[in-house]
Automatic annotation (TrEMBL):
Protein name: Glucose N-acetyltransferase 1
Gene3D superfamilies from the UniProt entry: Spore Coat Polysaccharide Biosynthesis Protein SpsA, Chain A
Assigned keywords, A-Z: Membrane, Transferase, Transmembrane, Transmembrane helix
The UniProt record lists the keyword Transferase: yes
Segments traversing the membrane: 12-31
Domain of life of the organism encoding this protein: Eukaryota
A molecular function GO annotation: transferase activity
InterPro entries assigned to the protein according to its UniProt record, in alphabetical order: GNT1/Glycosyltrans_8, Nucleotide-diphossugar_trans
SUPFAM superfamilies from the UniProt entry: Nucleotide-diphospho-sugar transferases
Stretch forming the signal peptide: none
Species of the source: Hanseniaspora osmophila
């Protein structure tokens, strides 16, 4: 009995000691990591333009002016980023259709892209079940034929095998198939677009997105509609008063930065505005523990870690998946196909966007892996992700009816002012949209998708569910519906 108790006590002491040692090591390494992060943050602020390496501790937003500038430079020189003659066969716009009702939207979108004079390929990925077991009154073959006839040269239709989640009865059951867009490895760069969207203007394309720096594998706008007004206000406050970065966007896109030569890749990238950290990290100031948590797997150390884990998780900032600029690679696709898709097939409520945001491009994990790689490689470290401006590429049609979103959409990069702050304050949202927006995704709310309606239908701007409309914004919203419907009727 006495011996037993002694043993028990010894065991307890032993376990406590082990836990203490682990905790101590954890705390120490977290402390160390925080110190390092702080150190590099300081360096990035002091000599951001050329510290001799890529910024490893921030996520960058690319302003529209910078995208446009890269584009016109390449097109003027007719050279790609390796100095070779531009080969437009290496660029593709990609659509994906798993529902026959959406086929016509691709016709509308591709026609508009062709009218704009783009030389890129136009690729439609269509799930093979639409052809094998047509279950609607839509003549799939005929629709695909129409599409092909838009341009024998540029339009390509590729059948893909849909990926179904077993035991999933929702409308998203085959949404993991969308990840097959990452398989388009024939191309150096693809611009993936959901086709329930409007390309704004008469002749619009997004060619400029093919010319993002070649080391960038993935770029997309953020799902801004998930941010609360206070979150956005805080992001502005943070840039100006906490991080003390310049809030004037023009400072980031001045002449010298835009004319940065190819060999000044560090200067170009480091000069881009940072994403305000409060959008993806909580206020704990303990960045290290937070990014470590985001990557931890089941282990004793992660159990110990969870004892002092940050309480308020912050994972509001996510990439939208309706428009994505991708540099496809076989290696990445193999990981997606043999690892990520099988792993998420049986998980409940895990769809394409979750795989993209939780497994591939989680903002916290990006910081963690960037920094880890940087410590190993220093000069050879290359970042691979950018945030695109939502005002140009990420607008949801419903936002025109929701004044809570206006503040966000007034400026190009979150946390930064395009000009003098007051100027934009007076600008009307409809003018901003007309001037800048290129791609608007039709939301399901407050109205259904436009192709369910007739051109003659009047889309009323009633005030519903405390959505106050402003007249001008509503006119734009109505105009978008009508514009889409007339484009649709002309093609389909
Ligand atoms: C990926 O693309 C290649 C080339 O087009 C094709 O042969 C292959 O079947 C595709 N893989 C999947 C899983 O769809």
């Amino acid at each position: 009995m006495i011996l037993g108790r002694k043993k028990l006590r010894l065991t307890l002491v032993f376990i406590t000691a082990v836990v203490c040692v682990f905790t101590f090591v954890e705390v120490l390494s977290t402390f160390q990591l925080n110190k390092e992060i702080e150190h590099y943050k300081y360096i990035m602020k002091k000599k951001k333009n050329n510290p001799g390496f890529f910024d490893p501790i921030n996520i960058k937003q690319i302003p529209y002016a910078a995208i446009e500038n890269l584009h016109s430079k390449r097109v003027n020189e007719n050279k790609d980023s390796n100095g070779d003659v531009l080969d437009w066969n290496k660029f593709a716009y990609v659509n994906y259709v798993a529902d026959a009702e959406y086929l016509c939207n691709t016709n509308v979108m591709f026609k508009k892209l062709l009218d704009s004079g783009t030389k890129a390929k136009l690729v439609l990925l269509v799930t093979s079940d639409l052809l094998e077991e047509p279950n609607s009154d839509i003549d799939v073959e005929a629709k695909l034929q129409d599409l092909k006839e838009l341009s024998e040269n540029q339009v390509l239709i590729k059948q893909i095998e849909p990926i179904y989640k077993p035991k999933d009865g929702t409308e998203w059951k085959n949404s993991l198939s969308k990840l097959l867009v990452f398989n388009e490895t024939l191309y150096d760069r693809i611009v993936y677009m959901d086709n329930d969207a409007l390309l704004r203007g008469e002749t619009t394309n997004l060619d400029e997105l093919f010319f993002l720096p070649s080391y960038i594998d993935f770029a997309a706008p953020l799902t801004y509609w998930m941010f609360t007004s206070s979150k956005i206000a805080h992001a502005y406050h943070e840039v100006a008063n906490v991080e003390k970065w310049s809030t004037r966007l023009d400072k980031y896109i001045d002449e010298s930065f835009l004319s940065a030569k190819k060999e000044d890749a560090y200067q170009f990238y480091n000069g881009l505005p940072n994403l305000p950290p409060s959008l993806y990290l909580s206020e704990s100031k303990n960045i290290a523990s937070e990014i470590l948590e985001s990557t931890s797997t089941i282990s004793l150390s992660s159990t110990v870690k969870s004892l002092y884990a940050t309480k308020n998780k912050n994972d509001v900032a996510k990439f939208a998946s309706d428009l994505m600029v991708i540099k496809p690679s076989q290696e990445l696709f193999d990981t997606i196909y043999t690892d990520l898709i099988p792993r998420n097939l049986k998980r409940k409520e895990k769809y394409d966007m979750d795989v993209i945001n939780e497994e591939m491009y989680d903002l916290k994990k990006i910081i963690y892996y960037q920094f880890k790689l940087f410590k190993k490689l220093k000069k050879a470290f290359v970042p691979n992700v950018l945030v695109l401006p939502a005002r140009e590429y990420g607008l949801l049609s419903g936002s025109l009816r929701n004044p809570k979103h206006y503040d966000f959409l007034k400026h190009d990069c979150i946390g930064y002012y395009d000009g003098i702050e007051k100027d934009a304050k007076n600008e009307k949202i409809e003018d901003i949209v007309a001037k800048w927006n290129k791609y608007t995704h039709f939301s399901d709310y407050p109205m259904g998708k436009p192709w369910y309606y007739d051109k003659s239908d009047d889309f009323e701007c009633e005030i519903k569910d405390n959505l106050e409309d402003t007249e001008g914004a509503c006119k734009t919203w109505q105009h978008d519906f009508r514009a889409f419907i007339s484009e649709y009727e002309a093609v389909c």
